[in-house]
Write a structure and sequence with these properties.
Strand content: 5-15%
Distance between the termini: 40 Å
Number of domains: 1
Strand order of the largest sheet: 2-1-3-4-5-6
Structural class: alpha/beta
CATH class: Alpha Beta
CATH architecture: 3-Layer(aba) Sandwich
Number of helices: 8
Number of strands: 6
């Protein structure tokens, strides 16, 4: 079914990294007028300029490499960096979009977050905390905005090919392949188009009954205990 986003305006943040390229390309192919922004931190003035006017669909795609450190060695600066890159920009983006979307009685916000806090990753507690804050914020925001006709949902992914967390050179490493076989029931890394197609569904008119959902996309990793 082509043209599922015909006539819709879309803003994709960090469109040159993480899941931005795949989502922007698919949305454009489906008829949307896509603004591909290549910002990273999204200070308040950047958000105001980007979301003027507020689009029909906002794709909040934010990424920052995880901090690998034992909990007793987390530096304040590293902790703050993760929240400045992931949590604060998300709040500003959603805050700016929410008012106009409420006023017109419709709108879609789709965020790409992470499955990391759904299960937890040792030595990545700061990253899990920042991604967990994103997920909690979106869950509450989705419930708050649902009565205004505004849908907010998130794709909490892991083990999906992308330039920030799972680049091609990593996927070719024998050590990573062994890790994948041991911890991911699906025993594979998904292609970025899988996230893009899920984002398309969440942003489309076919999706009407999902609000405040944090949808895992991780090959079964979030439901295993080993």
């Amino acid at each position: 079914m082509a043209g599922r986003l015909d006539g819709q305006t879309v803003v994709v943040t960090s469109a040159d990294r993480y899941m931005g390229p795949a989502i922007a390309d698919l949305f454009a192919a489906e008829g949307a007028q896509v603004t591909r922004d290549t910002g990273k931190r999204y200070a308040q003035d950047e958000v105001e300029a980007l979301l003027d006017p507020v689009p029909d669909i906002l794709v909040a795609n934010l990424a920052e490499p995880p901090l690998a450190a034992p909990v007793d060695e987390i530096a304040d600066g590293d902790w703050q960096n993760l929240f400045e890159a992931l949590v604060h920009p998300l709040m500003r983006l959603v805050r700016a979009a929410a008012g106009p979307m409420k006023t017109r009685g419709h709108g879609k916000i789709v965020a790409v977050t992470s499955a990391a806090p759904l299960r937890g990753i040792p030595h990545a507690s700061a990253y899990c905390a920042a991604r967990g804050a994103q997920n909690a914020f979106l869950r509450a925001t989705g419930l708050e905005l649902a009565k205004y006709g505004v849908q907010v949902n998130a794709i909490a992914q892991n083990y999906v090919r992308n330039d920030t967390y799972y680049p091609d050179d990593m996927l070719e490493q024998e050590r990573f392949r062994a890790h994948l076989a041991a911890v991911v029931p699906g025993k594979r890394v998904a292609e970025s188009q899988e996230t893009a197609h899920l984002a398309l569904y969440l942003a489309s008119k076919e999706c009407t009954h999902m609000v405040g959902q944090i949808v895992p996309l991780a090959g079964g990793w979030t439901t295993t205990t080993g």
